[in-house]
Design brief:
Layout: H1 4-7, H2 11-16, H3 19-26, H4 28-45, H5 47-50, H6 91-127, H7 129-143, H8 147-162, H9 164-169, H10 171-183, H11 185-198, H12 202-209, H13 214-222, H14 227-250, H15 262-270, H16 279-305
Helix pairs in contact: 4-6, 4-16, 6-7, 6-10, 6-11, 6-14, 6-15, 7-11, 8-10, 10-14, 12-13, 14-15, 14-16, 15-16
């Protein structure tokens, strides 16, 4: 008797033989972007191990080391490879920790956007009628305002309601909520369009005839067939969320100065850039640009791969 288990390929083998991995291997830009993004993620995860110093440990910070230039410039010190900021913190270390915070906020905000957008989009597309009209009008109203305007309004409300001290203590959670609430309509509209196309297909009609509940049909049958556009949007939205956090921090509505993110580091350094301490802003700014660039390149590649009319390999 033939052993069926031994001949059945594993999930990893199926992935290596899939068209997705085949096209990935042939695209040098996608490979390079993925490698750089993976390095950023590993740096953020292992920041406490890789960073030369802990920017949160006040005992190791000396104000006399403030605004030291990078090590290769005159008056620079080898223990501060990229120089120090106005508080004497090592720029390289703060960038590593700031990268971690920016990625947490970006991924957390996208997860919240995804949760709200999926629920609203599935509900609107599946049930239609007045429910669809009401939910889409809410989304349209929010889309009529810019993302930053919505984020600034919500951030100001949080600060006025709970106070600046409370906001600073829970800044990461607050920014996840603010950015997530500000940008969910992008998901809702895309998922709704996919649901409108899927619910007319035979497998949905068969599930309805069999008496399955609406929630089961929506989440177990329709949603898996809408994952391709969701994945593409998510990569772009991660980059947008990171940029939104940086912009809010630059405006003083994001991370506090004692908890560095890439946005707050750029904001801190901008004050000193005209005094000659350009490195405080320049290096975090370059890192932010590279991070957003590689995420956008991966998003563009995914968009083309999932659209066979565009992608040619």
């Amino acid at each position: 008797m033939t052993n069926i288990t031994s001949t059945t390929p594993s999930r990893w083998q199926r992935f290596l033989e899939s068209d997705f991995f085949y096209f990935f291997k042939r695209d040098k830009v996608a490979i390079g972007s993925f490698i750089v993004f993976a390095l950023f993620v590993l740096t953020a995860v292992f920041a406490p191990i890789l960073s030369p110093a802990n920017p949160y440990d006040l005992a190791t910070i000396d104000i006399m080391d403030s605004e030291l230039p990078p090590a290769w410039l005159e008056e620079g010190e080898t223990r501060f490879l990229l120089g120090t900021d106005n508080q004497g913190r090592d720029i390289l270390s703060t960038m590593m920790y700031g990268l971690r915070i920016s990625l947490i906020i970006g991924l957390g905000a996208v997860a919240l956007q995804l949760a709200i957008g999926i629920v609203v989009g599935l509900t609107a597309g599946y049930f239609g009628g007045r429910i669809d009209s009401f939910l889409m009008r809410v989304a349209d109203v929010q889309l009529s305002f810019s993302t930053m305007m919505v984020a600034i309004i919500i951030s100001a409300i949080f600060k006025a309601s709970f106070g600046s001290e409370f906001y600073s203590q829970y800044a990461i959670l607050m920014l996840v909520v603010i950015i997530g609430v500000a940008e969910w309509p992008q998901y809702a509209r895309t998922i709704r369009a996919s649901v409108l196309a899927e619910k007319k297909k035979e497998y949905v009609e068969a599930a309805q005839v069999m008496g399955f509940r609406s929630l089961r049909i929506m989440f177990r049958h329709i949603l898996p067939n809408c994952l391709s556009p969701i994945l593409v949007i998510s990569t772009v939205q991660v980059a947008n969320a990171i940029m939104s956090e940086a912009a809010l921090s630059f405006l003083g509505l994001g991370m506090p100065a004692d908890t560095p993110s890439l946005g707050s580091l750029i904001s801190i350094g901008f004050t000193y850039i005209f005094s000659g301490s350009w490195w405080i802003t320049a290096f975090p700014g370059i890192l932010l640009v590279l991070l957003v660039l590689v995420i956008n390149l991966l998003g563009d590649w995914l968009r083309d791969v999932f659209n066979p009319k565009i992608y040619k390999g």
